[in-house]
Every structure is written in structure tokens, then in C-alpha cells.
Design a protein that fits this description.
alpha+beta; 13 strands; 34% helix; 25% strand
Length: 322
């Protein structure tokens, strides 16, 4: 089996899109959208939506489902009752109130409470580590209008290599890989989709172990294999851009929900993506850390990593010190 076998879908069909359009015009959705993309990222999946706050998926919305709104119990008033969810579906169903002003669980918990005070339900342990660093990076980029983010957690299913199947405990035929960010880069007036893998500078997967290369090398190779399926990925994100534009044109999303980038308005970038999207065929590696962490005995293995990446025809990693 070739490792380049994969499954990947994004985008919403017209029926699902219209149902979502109705929801995003409700009072509770408008409260969320008013926070802007720098606080809440609304990511289109395969006919459903994930809504993120500081890297945590705080709402899953399946417009075609009989129970379209779900939230993980750990972000609700049931967070301390993990035992009752052992071996069960960890997602709690929410119902849209008659006035559209809230999403309410069977126990009476209200999603509006999370919107008003996220830290009342989302603890530091949920957002620490890589999630927290990614959000700091995105916050800085949004503030300076240095990024146009179009997706988070780009997951795709690929066929395992024979070596992976032999080494795995389960021997499963497929595995789910996930890239952290999808952003748009403008080159000569044209939009390019760039997939970015993020690692903390202290992540052990950046360091070689004995005679084995760092784990990140294999990850980057798999991501590059995925990117060879250029036409499908481009058509997928053209549809995603069209979906976002639909929400904007129907007044479901504020026009300025997507921040401008390089002095280009967000809506204009989406229009360019819908019509002229290109793909950068190399994944990007972004390493986040502090100056102190870089100086703390890591310079040598990061130099070795640069060399290995170059040997495999990858660009040098980018660094962000935050």
C-alpha cells in the first residue's frame, strides 16, 4: 500500500449551507461572530463546522443532524463528572432556545455562559503547551495583519506504509494525520494555500534519537505526499472560500470577521481564493519558543534538523519567539 492514499474533504453543500446561514443569524451566533476571528475560529469541515477558542473545539455544529449542536463535557458544568462519560460519547447535546439567544443543555447549562467567561469552563490545562503557543502566535499575527488564516487542524486519512503497520500496535490500514494551520500567502497578487506544522522548540520530535532521524522528518514527508494531490486540495479550499463568502453576502457573517492581510481586505482575499487559488507544494515548519529556550543547549540539534530538512528538499524551518 502506498502512503499517498488518503481521504480529505472540506466544504458544505447548498442545503447544509442554507441551514447554517439561518443559525449564524441568530443572536447567540452573532455574539460569537462579534468577537472576530482573532478570538473564535470558525472552521468548515465536511458538511459541519468546528468552532475554536484558544485551540479548543468549543462547539461542533452539524446543520443536517437532528441534534446539530454538541460540546465536549469537559467545557461545561459537567467537567468534574468525567466518570459518567467513561466509555461513552463525551459530547453533550445543546438545543437552540426559542428566541435564538442561547444554546442550552438538558441540564440547563448555557453556552452563553462560556462566551461571556470562557475561563469559567476552560482551564489552563486545556490550553497549555502547543495550543497556547499557537494562539499567542496567531494573536500577534492577527494584530499586525500578518496572516490570513483559513483553517485549523487540517486532518486527513492516509494509508500506512508497510513499515508503519509492522511497528504499530493495532496494525490498522489507515492513520489520521493532522497539520496545524492553513494560511493564505499572497504572491504577485495571487493567493497560495500554505499548510503549516507547528512545533515547540522543546518538542522531542525535533531531535534525533540515536541512529534515527527526528520524528518530524517523517511527518513532513507525509504532509508533502498529501500536498501532491494538488487539484483536490485546491478545489476543496475554493469551496471553503465560497462558503465563507456566502455567509458574508447573506449578512450571516460580519464583513470584517476575516481580518485584512497585506492591506487587502479579508473579503477580497476570499474572492481571490474562490477564483484563483494556488497551492504551495511544500509544507511549512514553524518552530515556536523563547530566546532562552533556544539558548538552552538546543542550537546544535536545531542546526542538525536544518541539515536534515535540506537533505530531504524541505525549506528551513521558520522561528517565532514569543
Amino acid at each position: 500500500m502506498k502512503a499517498t492514499e488518503f481521504s480529505f474533504k472540506r466544504g458544505m453543500n447548498p442545503k447544509v449551507l442554507e441551514r447554517a446561514n439561518i443559525f449564524f443569524k441568530t443572536l447567540i451566533a452573532q455574539k460569537l461572530l462579534a468577537e472576530g476571528i482573532h478570538n473564535y475560529q470558525i472552521c468548515i469541515r465536511d458538511n459541519y463546522i468546528n468552532i475554536y477558542w484558544k485551540g479548543c473545539s468549543v462547539l461542533r455544529y452539524h446543520p443536517n443532524s437532528k441534534s446539530p449542536f454538541r460540546i465536549h463535557y469537559k467545557y461545561t458544568d459537567l467537567a468534574s463528572e468525567a466518570d459518567q462519560f467513561e466509555g461513552k460519547d463525551p459530547y453533550i447535546k445543546l438545543k437552540l432556545s426559542n428566541d435564538g439567544n442561547d444554546l442550552v443543555s438538558q441540564s440547563g447549562w448555557r453556552f452563553s455562559g462560556l462566551l461571556e467567561n470562557p475561563f469559567a469552563y476552560i482551564s489552563q490545562r486545556h490550553i497549555s503547551g502547543e495550543k497556547e503557543s499557537i494562539q499567542k502566535y496567531l494573536g500577534a499575527m492577527f494584530k499586525n495583519k500578518d496572516i490570513f488564516l483559513i483553517d485549523l487542524e487540517i486532518a486527513f486519512r492516509r494509508g500506512r506504509t508497510e513499515d508503519e503497520r509492522i511497528k504499530s500496535v493495532t496494525g490498522r490500514k489507515y492513520v489520521a494525520d493532522r497539520i496545524d494551520l492553513a494560511r493564505i500567502e499572497m504572491v504577485d497578487g495571487l493567493p497560495y494555500l500554505v499548510l503549516t506544522e507547528v512545533k515547540l522548540v522543546r518538542d522531542s520530535r525535533l531531535k534525533a534519537e540515536k541512529d534515527s532521524p527526528p520524528e518530524i522528518i517523517a511527518q513532513m514527508i507525509h504532509y508533502r505526499e498529501f500536498l501532491q494531490h494538488e487539484s483536490q486540495i485546491i478545489e476543496t479550499y475554493k469551496l471553503v472560500a465560497a462558503n465563507y463568502l456566502h455567509f458574508i453576502h447573506q449578512k450571516a457573517f460580519p464583513e470584517k470577521f476575516f481580518t485584512s492581510f497585506q492591506n487587502i481586505q479579508g473579503i477580497k482575499i476570499l474572492e481571490l481564493c474562490q477564483n484563483s487559488l494556488r497551492l504551495r507544494k511544500q509544507p511549512e515548519l514553524l518552530i515556536i519558543g523563547t530566546k532562552k529556550e533556544l539558548e538552552n543547549g538546543r542550537i546544535n540539534h536545531l542546526n542538525k534538523l536544518r541539515t536534515l530538512l535540506k537533505e530531504h528538499d524541505f525549506d528551513h524551518p521558520k522561528f517565532w519567539l514569543g
